[in-house]
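INFO  loader      accepted 1 record
INFO  loader      residues=204
INFO  predictor   begin
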Amino acid sequence: MVREIKHPVLIHKLNRIRELSTPRETIFELLKDIASFMVYEALSDLELVEREVDIWIGRRRFGFVEEKTVVFVPILRAGIPMLEGAQRVIPKASTGFLALKRDEETLKSHLYYSRLPDLSGRKVIILDPMLATGGTLAKALGEIVKGGPEQTMSIHIVCAPQGIQKVEKEFPNHKLYTISIDEGLSDRGYILPGLGDMGDRLFS
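INFO  predictor   done
INFO  writer      dumping tokens
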């Protein structure tokens, strides 16, 4: 399932990131804001569990999210600002980390770091600003599904159609959320118009 969230505020924030003149620190804040918005949308079907609590007129039962059922997995490096935004929404969620590097000649992604909590029966949300060829997300999902999660989702700012097609083919039950499905890929595998090299824009 692919959901393109065409909210005007999100589109505005995305297009501010596209602008080369936007300072690094502003991009960090924009990514945090966007991730917060999109996590709300991705978790719109979370079940509430009732528990009894003390309120001003005595004890009553109310519904609460079981935050520990959610796991955030940012893709290093560019997913780090998105993690902070996601944690604003579900602060007690667990966190895992995956680091992958794409070979610029073959465009294939290689996993070189994996640190994941127990994923069994949990909802896993992957955080990565861009989905280009789909190789990184497919590799990440291959690592994550070994842990037996109940559901996998990913949040991206922009996606290329080619990447979406690859992930849909290999992981048909995966849910993907984005603000924009861009035009396509360059011959070097970069999204057009895209955001440029987001890792370099954030950390170089």
